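As the work plan foresaw, the team has encoded backbone shapes as discrete tokens. One protein thus recorded appears below exactly as we store it.

:::
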Amino acid sequence: MSVQVERRYVDGPYGQIHVYDAIPPFPTSQLKTPLICFHQSPVSGLQYQAFQAAMATDRRVICPDTPGFGGSDAPPAAPGIEGYAIALAKGLEELGFGEGRLVDVLGFHTGAQICVELAANRPDLVRRQVLSSLALLTDEEIEKNRSVFGGARPLFADPDYVGRYYAQQVIDGYDGMSPERRLALFAERMRPGMLSWYGPEAVFTHDTKAALQSVEQPTLLYIMRDTLSENTRTAASLVQRATIYERMDIHGPVGWDSHPNEIAADVRRFLDAAL
């Protein structure tokens, strides 16, 4: 039997939250803690499509779209990481989690920040967390990244913007993804429209260091090769119960597509290990 992925909506504080919900093929696998995967900005839960299928062979795996991205309703103003975490926690409660029914969480880029915020503030909800490409940035790095990724995209001011972005993401996109897959993710990148900057801005304004220092759950720092590899390593000194897996042989931005089974095996080993 193959893994079945259902698409559904749950209520959240900003409207409906869209989720990709992978149901394990065997009832006994429900004994394992479900895994919730939070995506980077500005894509959606579709980012984890291959990894979700690989991971859901022995547990439920849910990939929500952050509010304002993918199929989820947008907030009325930029909510910050704290607002995203509160909204997604509400969505998980609507799915029946919380009050002793725990989940494991995994995040990449913006999603890693959401994991940290949830783990720090909802120990009643989060059992363990997996962080990859964590933007634990210095003030200098924040300003440098804000100059590139901050603010609304010039969708109406620059007639060539979409064409350049399409060439970058699809025509000249990462090896390890088919052109069709790059096109699908490009479409997800465009869906937030003028609000796509909400995700990066949330990262720039989040006190990630303080949140990390508050986390008591076991934490896996999964270090793939990308611009945030060293930032993720630095987090080990701030987390009380940190484990590091080095996978510099995998290119982070494309790894969820190019090496889903290998990443799933690594994550499964951490999540299933005895405390």
